[in-house]
């Protein structure tokens, strides 16, 4: 789930959205002189500035000889050069950083024929590091107080390539080493449309994730609710106490789901729910009608069908959770059954 990157690009229609095999970063190369393709890619993920090193706040350098000033400036520039040298020496040919890279530093990358990308989102960086087996580096400093960069911190991918999607340049990381990473490029007329698509996609991906987690699915389209309702109604009749009423009410409330589904699809809710209940009643009482237990609503045709065969399924885990939460919410509301009302007595005012 983390390995799926969703990019939104304006233009074209929603049907032109497509899947790209590789993780796309929503930024281009940092300089035009860099190659557009590097293969095989060795990726370094950094979390600091590759800019001319400045002294930290509060550090004072007292200089007596003006010639020393130039040396200090030179040393500041050389420190960044050394850092970049260490990166390239370790074998990195793709450098991603969440911070900035200045022109002086870019020059070294261009000369080495490496791709550098600056201002990468932290979230993207984490996913890239996970997919390529890289380690995100916050500082070069080691225990001895020197600066080192070990080649074991580098991630691997088959290739890193810059492609043009819509009007933007994106850097694609393809053939990642540890986990497969893909990107979904969504196209749409405007931001609202794209946001809506992204939300729907997120829901769909979450459902797939839940299904894979629980490994069990149930028939959708009101099948579970109808079956439960029929079962609970029968269970209610076997009880002799007032619990019977509560269970019967619970059973009836479950039917709201198929009813709302039918009403939203502009179908005859009363008839459809009655048919659905009949199917599930038969499935639970007659041994030869067991196959009717996965009957649910077909909302496009307005009929009842076997939803397991039709491929309309839901993760069992979600169903259990939904019913649990709804029940808990109802119980919470029922607990608050006292209302204290202070009515102002008009009679008293007259006496005063």
From TrEMBL:
Broad class of where this protein is predominantly found: cytoplasm
Compartments reported by the entry: Cytoplasm
Matches recorded under Pfam families: Cpn60_TCP1 (PF00118)
GO MF terms held by the record: ATP binding; ATP-dependent protein folding chaperone
Recorded superkingdom: Eukaryota
Keywords linked to the UniProt accession: ATP-binding, Chaperone, Cytoplasm, Nucleotide-binding
GO cellular component: cytoplasm
SUPFAM superfamilies, sorted: GroEL apical domain-like, GroEL equatorial domain-like, GroEL-intermediate domain like
Entry similarity comment: Belongs to the TCP-1 chaperonin family.
PANTHER family on file: CHAPERONIN
Protein known as: T-complex protein 1 subunit alpha
Taxonomic placement: Eukaryota, Viridiplantae, Streptophyta, Embryophyta, Tracheophyta
């Amino acid at each position: 789930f983390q390995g799926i990157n969703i990019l939104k690009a304006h233009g074209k229609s929603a049907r032109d959205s497509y899947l790209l095999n590789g993780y796309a970063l929503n930024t281009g190369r940092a300089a035009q002189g860099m190659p557009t393709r590097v293969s095989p890619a060795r990726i370094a993920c950094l979390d600091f500035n590759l800019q001319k090193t400045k002294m930290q706040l509060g550090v004072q350098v007292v200089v007596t000889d003006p010639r020393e000033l130039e040396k200090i400036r030179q040393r500041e520039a050389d420190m960044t050069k050394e850092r970049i040298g260490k990166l390239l020496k370790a074998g990195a040919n793709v450098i991603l950083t969440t911070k900035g890279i200045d022109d002086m530093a870019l020059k070294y990358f261009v000369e080495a024929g490496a791709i550098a990308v600056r201002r990468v989102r932290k979230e993207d960086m984490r996913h890239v590091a996970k997919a390529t087996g890289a380690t995100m580096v916050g500082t070069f400093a080691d225990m001895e107080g020197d600066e080192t960069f070990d080649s074991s911190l580098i991630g691997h991918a088959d290739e890193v390539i810059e492609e043009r999607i819509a009007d933007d340049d994106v850097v694609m990381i393809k053939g990642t080493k540890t986990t497969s990473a893909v990107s979904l490029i969504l196209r749409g007329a405007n931001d609202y449309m794209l946001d809506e698509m992204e939300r729907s996609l997120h829901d769909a991906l979450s459902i797939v994730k839940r299904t894979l987690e629980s490994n069990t699915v149930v028939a959708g389209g009101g099948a579970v609710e109808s079956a439960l309702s029929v079962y609970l109604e029968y269970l209610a009749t076997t009880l002799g106490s007032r619990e019977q009423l509560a269970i019967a009410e619970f059973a009836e409330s479950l039917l709201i789901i198929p009813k709302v589904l039918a009403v939203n699809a502009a179908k005859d809710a009363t008839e459809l729910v009655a048919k659905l209940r009949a199917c599930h009643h038969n499935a639970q009482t007659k041994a030869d009608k067991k196959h009717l237990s996965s009957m649910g609503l077909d909302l496009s045709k307005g009929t009842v069908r076997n939803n397991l065969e039709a491929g309309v399924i839901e993760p069992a885990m979600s169903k259990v959770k939904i019913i649990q939460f709804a029940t808990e919410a109802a119980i919470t509301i029922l607990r608050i059954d006292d209302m204290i009302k202070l009515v102002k007595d008009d009679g008293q005012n007259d006496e005063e």
